[in-house]
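agent> step 3/5: call structure_predict on target 'Transcriptional regulator' (Pseudarthrobacter enclensis).
agent> reason: downstream docking stage needs a structural representation; sequence fetched in step 2, passing through unchanged.
tool.input:
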Amino acid sequence: MSTDSTLRFGAQTDEVTSLLRIVNLVRTGEATTRPEIGRVTGLGRGVVTQRVDQAIQMGFLGEGDFGASSGGRAPRTLRFRAEQGHIIVCALGAAHIRVGVTALDGDILGHTHRAWDIAKGPAKTLGAAMDMVDELMKDFPKLPVWSVVVGLPGPVDFATGQPVAPPIMPGWNGADVRTPFEERFNAPVWVDNDVNLLAFGERARRREALADLIYCKIGSGIGAGLLSQGRIHRGANGAAGDIGHVRVPDSRETCRCGKVGCLEAVAGGWALVRDAGQAIAGGAASSMEGRANKGALTLEDITTAAEGGDPLAISLVQKAARVMGESIAALVNMFNPGVIVIGGAIAAAGEVFLAEVRQRVYELSLPLATRDLTIVLSVNDEREPLRGGAELAREQLFDITFPRWFADGRPSPERIAA
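tool.output (status=ok):
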C-alpha cells in the first residue's frame, strides 16, 4: 500500500476527512457507487473520483460489479476490502475459552472452544487462548491481524484493558491482558467485559445503529450490557451493568464476592445449583437427583429439567426469574430501553423463565418506560460473543481511531495509542 505525501499521519485536512468518510460510506454500505457518494457527501464528481482513487491505491477499497442503471451507463460499485486482514476475538468465560477469527467486515471465518477454569489465572489462561488462536490461524491465509478483542467475565477498566477486582477471577485484579496479545500479534488490543461483547453482537445482528438495548446475561454469574443510541455505556470505571452484585432485599445468602445478599447469590447459575442440591438432599423429588448426588449438577441440567416439567427445577427457575425481573425493572425505569435480551445458560429454560421476568418487569416499571418495550431471549448462538467482539473492533478501528492510522494502510498499537 502506498500513501500520498498529503495524507501523512496527523494531517486532519478537509481532504483527509472526506477520504475517511468515503471509505466508511462504502464499508457500511451507505453509498457504494461514485454517484451515490457524491449525493451523500455533496462533493463534486472530480473530487469524488480523486478520493476514491486514493482509497483504492491505499488498499481500503476495490472495484465491484456494475450497479443498477438509472437511465444511462450503469455505475461501477465499490467494495470495502474486508479480506485484507483479520480480527481475532478471545471470549473468556468462567469455565471456557472461545476464540474466533473474522474478516474486517465481521464475517466469522472460523472458531473453536475448550473447557477452562478462569481461576487458573491470567498467565496460563492467556497462554492457552493464544495457543488456540495460533492453531486456528493455520487454516487461513497469512494475513496481518488488524485487531484483537478479549472478553472477560468481570469488570474491566476499558481504558487500560485491566480487570478490576473481578469476583470470580482470583489473581486477575490489575492483570496486564493487553500487552501479551500486542506482542504476539503486533496489533491493537481492546479488552472488555464479556456481556458488552454480547450487547455488541446483538447490535450487529439487528443492524440497529441507534439501538437502546439491555443485554442481561444469566449464567454462572449475572451481568448486563447497556447500549444507548448504539453506544456501549461502560461508566466511569467500567463497572456499569454489573447488576450481579446489587443487593436483594431480605436475602442473607453469601456471594462469591464476599458480600451478603447479592443478586448473583440468589439468581445466578451457581446459586440455583446450590439450592437444587440442598432441596434434593432434604428429600425433594426430582429428575435431577442422580446428577445432584454425584455432585455433577449444572445450570444446564436445571434448565433442561425445567423445560421437561420437573417441579423442583421449574420452581427454582421461576424464583430466579422473579428476582431478576425486579432488578431489570429498576434498569427499565432508569434506562428506558427499547429491547431487553435475556441470554446466558438460563435462556435455555425458555418461557418458563421469560414469562416470569416479563410479568415482574411490567408490574414494577413505569407505563411509559414499558410502552414500546420488547423482552426476548437471545438467539443462543455460541458465536455471538465472537460476532460482538468483531463489532467492537470495527467500531474502534473505523469510527474512533481511523484518523490516527489510516495513512499507514493498517492499524498498529503505536498509532492507536498516539
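agent> step 4/5: record observation. The chain has three domains: 5-80, 84-201+383-417, 208-377.
agent> proceeding.
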